[in-house]
Amino acid sequence: MFLGKVIGTVWATKKSDTCANLRFLVVHPLNLKKAPSTDVVICADTLGAGPGETVICAYGHAARKAIHPDAPAELSIEAAVIGIVDRVDIDEDASDGKIT
Amino acid sequence: MFLGKVIGTVWATKKSDTCANLRFLVVHPLNLKKAPSTDVVICADTLGAGPGETVICAYGHAARKAIHPDAPAELSIEAAVIGIVDRVDIDEDASDGKIT
Amino acid sequence: MFLGKVIGTVWATKKSDTCANLRFLVVHPLNLKKAPSTDVVICADTLGAGPGETVICAYGHAARKAIHPDAPAELSIEAAVIGIVDRVDIDEDASDGKIT
Amino acid sequence: MFLGKVIGTVWATKKSDTCANLRFLVVHPLNLKKAPSTDVVICADTLGAGPGETVICAYGHAARKAIHPDAPAELSIEAAVIGIVDRVDIDEDASDGKIT
Amino acid sequence: MFLGKVIGTVWATKKSDTCANLRFLVVHPLNLKKAPSTDVVICADTLGAGPGETVICAYGHAARKAIHPDAPAELSIEAAVIGIVDRVDIDEDASDGKIT
Fold first, then answer.
1. Is the ipTM of this complex over 0.90?
2. Is A25 on the interface with D (CB under 8 A)?
3. How many domains in chain B?
4. pLDDT in the model for residue B34
5. Which of C1, C39, D34, E41 could form a disulfide with B42 if both were Cys (CB 3.0 to 4.6 A apart)?
6. CATH number of the domain enclosing C83
7. Taking 80 as the threshold, does the pLDDT of residue B100 lie above it?
8. What is the residue range of C58's domain?
């Protein structure tokens, strides 16, 4: 899964029936960089995440299971918000990034 | 899922039977950069997206479900247009890209 | 899916039984760059694609379905040629690469 | 799978029911670089990995199977710690990185 | 699938039961670059690949199928060696890397 910040919403009237009525957010993945990522991911959301909130997002089956727990395979989405983040505790010094 | 712009079409007469009769679009993924991405993704489409239109695309099961809802596992595709975008509202300032 | 050009073949006598007798091609993914990609993808092929031909390739279930439509889950491969390309029509000017 | 180092924890009260009660770690992927990666991956963990420990992580079905072996498809997660590393033996000189 | 060179081994005593008793190799992906990739992939192996050998590796279901053909879904791994390479024939001049 990845951490991201909600920065927008996508509207699409013409959509596959298998993802109709879903809310699609524009999520900006977060990293340890000084320079922000330039990519965004479109994520379905049923938790009500709003602009500026930090979210945990998942891909594939996990995304469908979060959005429609009873029949995940019925959905044609592959990314979703699975949690709204209260707090992240990190200690960047715990890793130097290199395999010893 | 990702946002992309339709920039072309691919023709292939010799194809797996499991993806015959499908329309394959060349989709250019969109980002927040000044410099455009140099990658493209080939996406199946049944919504009728045309050149210059912005689309939402999905990978894997989601792509097959969008194209053939009744029997997704019968298809040998793994990317598809799942929606044609009317409008994207983003506020880039809502994220500085860094995990706090 | 992605577009690639066939640039070679891989021979492996010692292989998982679940992918024996398959032909493995070295495929060079194509992009819009002036500088070519340095990555390659190994793809199973049953369409008879040859060196220098442009192909459409797919990952995961789609790849297995293209190679063995009757029992895709029996295969231990995750990339395959699903079509041999006759023509690609693109208009790079149709996209500036940026989310509006 | 990838190797990573645990550098933190994520707290999210508002979460999909299908991943409630799980512990989410911030994992920093390791590489052969001098410059560390700036990406992180959020991984579920039931092995009790702590800050500064090196872990093996897996995506997708593998992640769900590690966390909930009896009913992996019930989970809406797609990355997890599958092992805590005792030792890595590598000989970087065994590869020059180039296809011959 | 990708080509890689075996450069090491990972030992992990504390592991998910669903991947116990498996051998985990450190595999260095190969490319067409002069500069080698700095990433590595951890792959399960039952073919007996050793340091310095070139291997074909696969992700996801394909990896599990190669390692445990009778019950792939029981494993919590998502990358594996599926073949040991005897020879790679490539003609880099067959591709200029650009979509025509």
1. yes
2. no
3. 1
4. 67
5. C1
6. 2.40.50.220
7. no
8. 2-87
